[in-house]
């Protein structure tokens, strides 16, 4: 089919996802749903779960291969490889991968805690590397991704990485030393809000609302609050103050949260996530020695 400027994808380069878990699927879904890349230009590989690869192929039309020799050839020739395996599997995989790569192949990592230096050390070469931390909201085009680049990245490769993640949400390019705290905020952040929604929904049900009513009220409240911050540009503290009448019901609720040290507990959760990211990175670094 002739490609016009209207139907030409933003990314024409072949991309191989090495790892096929929830994060890889979220990115792939976002890319395909938003017509950033044709499904046949994406190949998905994993260690041994062929059923998972078949499911993804049927769902999105992506390519996959479970034959060892074929996988070796795909990894050897793919211009872009996205590392999306579990952190515990990364060291062994990267050591094997390093022997296959040519200098111009781009490595994009979405593995929490895995630094650029450790990635290159495990590969055994100074490969062009983009360290990223997306979140699963990329699957609906509303992701938030932090990105750091190695000095070996070319301008063309840099633009490809930015195009890939900007197509599925917002991108923040940062110094690599800030990646762990970013992980604590946006990488794992959706889970904090899901947990809050669970609690609010449960409160509604316990108070007599139906599960559907409580869910819908909670969902619209979260959506509306986020949009208010986004569209008004006002700080959350100002918007909160506007709806907190002295001695009113909202103030009573917030005081209850404060008795549980809500504000500091959230900060502690973000910091603990960042610490855990560093810990995972340290374990991977040890395996590179």
TrEMBL record:
Keywords: Amino-acid biosynthesis, Cytoplasm, NADP, Oxidoreductase, Proline biosynthesis. Residues 15-113 form the Pyrroline-5-carboxylate reductase catalytic N-terminal domain. Its EC number is 1.5.1.2. NADP(+) binds at residues 84-87. Its main location: cytoplasm. One of its GO terms (molecular function) is pyrroline-5-carboxylate reductase activity. GO terms for cellular component: cytoplasm. Gene3D superfamilies: NAD(P)-binding Rossmann-like Domain, ProC C-terminal domain-like. Pfam families: F420_oxidored, P5CR_dimer. SUPFAM superfamilies: 6-phosphogluconate dehydrogenase C-terminal domain-like, NAD(P)-binding Rossmann-fold domains. It catalyses: L-proline + NAD(+) = (S)-1-pyrroline-5-carboxylate + NADH + 2 H(+); L-proline + NADP(+) = (S)-1-pyrroline-5-carboxylate + NADPH + 2 H(+). Pathway: Amino-acid biosynthesis; L-proline biosynthesis; L-proline from L-glutamate 5-semialdehyde: step 1/1. It is an enzyme of class 1 (oxidoreductase). It is found in: Cytoplasm. Residues 176-280 form the Pyrroline-5-carboxylate reductase dimerisation domain. GO terms for biological process: L-proline biosynthetic process. Belongs to the pyrroline-5-carboxylate reductase family. Catalyzes the reduction of 1-pyrroline-5-carboxylate (PCA) to L-proline. This is Pyrroline-5-carboxylate reductase. It comes from Paenibacillus ihbetae. The lineage of its organism: Bacteria, Bacillati, Bacillota, Bacilli, Bacillales.
């Amino acid at each position: 089919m002739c490609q016009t400027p209207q139907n030409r994808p933003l990314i024409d380069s072949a991309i191989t996802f090495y790892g096929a878990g929830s994060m890889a699927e979220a990115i792939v879904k976002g890319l395909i749903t938003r017509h950033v890349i044709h499904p046949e230009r994406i190949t998905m590989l994993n260690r041994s779960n062929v059923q998972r690869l078949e499911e993804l192929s049927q769902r999105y039309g992506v390519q996959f291969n479970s034959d060892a020799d074929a996988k070796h050839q795909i990894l050897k020739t793919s211009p872009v490889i996205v590392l999306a395996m579990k952190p515990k599997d990364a060291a062994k995989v990267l050591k094997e991968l390093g022997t296959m790569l040519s200098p111009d192949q781009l490595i994009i990592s979405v593995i929490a805690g895995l630094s650029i230096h450790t990635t290159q050390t495990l590969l055994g070469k100074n490969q062009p590397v983009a360290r990223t931390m997306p979140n699963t909201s990329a699957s609906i085009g509303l992701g938030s991704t932090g990105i750091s680049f190695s000095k070996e990245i070319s301008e063309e490769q840099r633009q490809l990485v930015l195009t890939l993640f900007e197509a599925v949400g917002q991108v923040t390019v940062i110094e690599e030393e800030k990646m762990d705290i970013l992980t604590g905020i946006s990488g794992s952040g959706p889970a904090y809000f899901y947990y809050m929604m669970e609690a609010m929904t449960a409160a509604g049900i316990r108070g007599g609302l139906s599960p559907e009513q409580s869910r819908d009220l909670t969902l619209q409240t979260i959506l509306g609050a986020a949009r208010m911050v986004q569209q008004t540009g006002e700080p959350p503290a100002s918007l909160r103050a506007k709806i907190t009448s002295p001695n009113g019901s909202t103030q009573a609720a917030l005081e209850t949260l404060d008795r549980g040290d809500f504000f500091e507990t959230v900060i502690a959760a973000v910091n603990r996530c960042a610490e855990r990211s560093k810990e995972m990175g340290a374990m991977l670094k040890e395996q590179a020695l």
